[in-house]
Specification:
One of its GO terms (cellular component) is lytic vacuole. With 154 residues, the chain is an alpha+beta fold. The chain contains three helices and six strands; from the N terminus they run αβββαβββα. Helix content is 53%, strand content 15%. The strands form two sheets. The chain has a three-stranded antiparallel β-sheet, covered by helices on one side. Strands 4-5-6 form a three-stranded antiparallel β-sheet.
Length: 154
Amino acid sequence: AAERAARAEERLVAGRAALGRTLFLLRCRRAKLAEQLRHIYPIEHSGQGNYNIRGIEIPSDLSQLWSREDEQIGTALGFICHILLMLSKYLMSPLPYRILYNPSRSMIYDHLTHNIEFPLYKRGAERERFERGLALLDRDLDALLCEQGLYQLA
């Protein structure tokens, strides 16, 4: 019985070591995938608190988006949607609001209001619905950051 217990303990120790190595490799793979996303969708500070994603300026105050050109805003928000979706998959961290990625015509769904969809583009959209979509997208970003320990939800 003592011999069986010793073998079982050895297997347990070996299993824990293998699990540790696997978790390390998983973290490395996730970091590499996130780094590749950073190169696909470069985000740069453009001054005055604004940012560029693939050369398209995004104001830090999202309420200013309504006054910007529709195609550029829809495209930039589509890039952000794609980044969030991919990071969510890579990190196995579900987003609270479902995103339908469609390059410059992405949508976000509020499951709390009977799966109503909100546009993440301006053309043909009501301003209230567009701004609600932005708020939900912001919540998805907050949730992903919080899940990774990078941000504390208020």
